[in-house]
Records
---
Amino acid sequence: MPQSERSQIIKEFLKWIEAKSQKSGASLQECVYHIELEITDMGATKKKSADYVSSCVRAGLIDIHGLKFKITAEGKNWLQRKSLT
């Protein structure tokens, strides 16, 4: 998958999780399902979708609060920078 497509998927995911963060956040299952919907036409698997979530955690874009994922300040900054381009 080209870098621009990955970046767009992460951008859409972070916008979604930012909205979910306003309330209680999103479970891992919700995150994986959302990413699967975004890239299903590209042959996404649950494992690949979960890898996206793990990559966002490792990059510091999202964080785990209890059993829910929420966007971090770094994730908001990344989203803002990428939305300008």
---
Amino acid sequence: MRAEQIGFDPLDFEDQYGMDPAAARKEAQAARRVVAKAKEKEGYEVKIWTLTGQLRKYKEFGVPDGRVRSVYYLSTVKR
């Protein structure tokens, strides 16, 4: 049985695509749904969940960030 955990961080969408926080949250959730459906079609059991109040201390090495957000996850197990 192989388990996998995949995270979708809204801050990645904000930084890469210049989205505002609300749009980035929606995009992260939508990306999670797309991957969840694809994994289910491949025969995986999928659980979606959210980890709230996560602090990103650093944007990159030596560059402070300090933003707090919810990170969206999915866990998969091969059936």
